[in-house]
From TrEMBL:
<dbReference type="Pfam" id="PF03786">
    <property type="entry name" value="UxuA"/>
</dbReference>
<comment type="function">
    <text>Catalyzes the dehydration of D-mannonate.</text>
</comment>
<dbReference type="InterPro" id="IPR004628">
    <property type="entry name" value="Man_deHydtase"/>
</dbReference>
<keyword id="KW-0408">Iron</keyword>
<dbReference type="InterPro" id="IPR036237">
    <property type="entry name" value="Xyl_isomerase-like_sf"/>
</dbReference>
<comment type="pathway">
    <text>Carbohydrate metabolism; pentose and glucuronate interconversion.</text>
</comment>
<keyword id="KW-0464">Manganese</keyword>
<dbReference type="GO" id="GO:0008927">
    <property type="term" value="F:mannonate dehydratase activity"/>
</dbReference>
<keyword id="KW-0456">Lyase</keyword>
<protein>
    <recommendedName>
        <fullName>Mannonate dehydratase</fullName>
        <ecNumber>4.2.1.8</ecNumber>
    </recommendedName>
</protein>
<comment type="similarity">
    <text>Belongs to the mannonate dehydratase family.</text>
</comment>
Length: 388
């Protein structure tokens, strides 16, 4: 696997020199300052590319060129936004970058109810709690009929918990849920958020799938001609939330995706944390099945709980068997003679990083370094044992 590390650019408290020191050779980043839906201009791309190169690293993957909401909704100026996307693909290809991660999650990127959940060893992890989600959905957002989406047991707990929550606790929960990644939904108010959600009223899974298929049929031919690989990131968490349809959650969703347009450029970011939160996903089996489509790997582990809640565990612990996952990947790499770019996806906030209040949640240096180091050891152990 090609070892990479995510970097959020100048505003990131993790620097390119830090990334060099963790032992990664590749950087995963985006032009976070370009508004969603605008063209990525060549001079802006080269600027960042030179910065990365002069640190002795390579810009391995773009994560992400985000998809404008009008494209997901197929409404308003979506045709112009698709043309902009095509132009961005041409421009990055001209700079010699050939890999793009993107996602098709309506309104939000990944969603957690707690960004600083305390672990017993003193570090913190990201957590998604179904009861807190129900509180937000039914009592804070007050979405009509939302309560029917949750089981009676979850609603009982949510109702009694909400009634004893302080105003401050309600604000913290709201902030945790609305805090987007750079370039997604920064600084969103509850009212703005409600109106973004309402744009999706009545849009079914089938509608959203058809909009994704339309988008791919427009952009993939451009990407294919230039040798650019597109790699969709699965929905996180892999379930419908807040009434929004989610369409990349399972093996059959990925089957649909690859069937929208048959092209080596139409591929997947195999995120074991996102897909692993769905107990029905057999990850090693899916890796075998989509071997030709996996262009990018996000490796992390979640510990699932019976009611659908989960937290982000150590990279080698949790509900997914990381040994079998990495073994399946290495067998593909060996068979095809390739190295797939991989990044440790999220990490615990720990050690000195616990004092770092400006870090992006999940993206502190030390927790991800620990994850990368563990994965690197696992890779070496498997390779030596199986002569891969
Ligand atoms: C979650 C993370 C996400 C991901 C974006 C890609 O698993 O990897 O932040 O980067 O959804 O578009
Ligand atoms: Mn991921």
């Amino acid at each position: 696997m090609e070892q990479t590390f995510r970097w959020f650019g100048a505003a990131d408290t993790v620097t390119l020199s830090d990334i060099k020191q963790v032992g990664a050779t590749g950087v995963v980043t985006a032009l976070h300052h370009i508004p969603n839906g605008e063209i990525w201009k060549i001079d802006k791309i080269s600027e960042v590319q030179h910065q990365i190169k002069s640190s002795g690293l390579t810009w391995s993957f773009i994560e992400s060129i985000p998809i404008h909401e009008n494209i997901k909704l197929r409404t308003g100026d979506y045709l112009k936004r698709i043309e902009n996307y095509k132009q961005s693909i041409r421009n990055i290809a001209q700079c010699g970058i050939k890999n793009i991660c993107y996602n098709f999650m309506p309104v939000l990127d990944w969603t957690r109810t707690n960004l600083y959940w305390s672990l017993s060893n003193g570090s913190t992890a990201l957590r998604f709690d179904m009861v807190d989600m129900a509180i937000f959905d039914c009592f804070i957002l007050k979405r009509t009929d939302a309560c029917h989406d949750f089981s009676a047991e979850i609603m009982d707990s949510a109702t009694s918990k909400f009634h004893v929550m302080t105003t401050n606790e309600i604000e913290v929960l709201t902030d945790n849920i609305l805090k987007g990644l750079p370039g997604t939904v920064d600084d969103l108010s509850l009212n703005e958020f409600r109106s973004m959600l309402s744009a999706y009223d009545g849009l079914t899974h089938a509608d959203l799938k058809s909009n994704l298929s339309y988008f791919l049929n427009q952009v993939i031919p451009v990407a294919e001609e230039l040798g650019v690989k597109m790699a969709i990131h699965p929905d996180d968490p892999p379930m419908d939330i807040m009434g929004l349809p989610r369409i990349i959650k399972s093996e059959s969703d990925l089957e649909d995706l690859v069937n929208y347009i048959d092209s080596p450029s139409n591929g997947i970011t195999f995120c074991t944390g996102s897909l692993g939160a769905n107990p029905n996903n057999d990850l090693p089996k899916m890796i075998d099945k989509f071997a030709d489509k996996i262009h990018f790997l996000h490796l992390r582990n979640v510990k699932r709980e019976p009611n659908g809640s989960f937290f982000e565990d150590n990279h080698l612990d949790g509900s997914s068997d990381m040994y079998s996952i990495v073994k399946a990947i290495l067998e593909i790499e060996d068979k095809k003679g390739i190295q797939i770019p991989m990044r440790p996806d999220h990490g615990h906030q720990m050690l000195n990083d616990l004092k770092n209040n400006n870090a992006y949640a999940g993206y502190t240096a030390i927790g991800r370094l620990k994850g990368l180091a563990e994965l690197r050891g696992l890779e070496l152990g498997i390779k030596k044992s199986f002569r891969l």
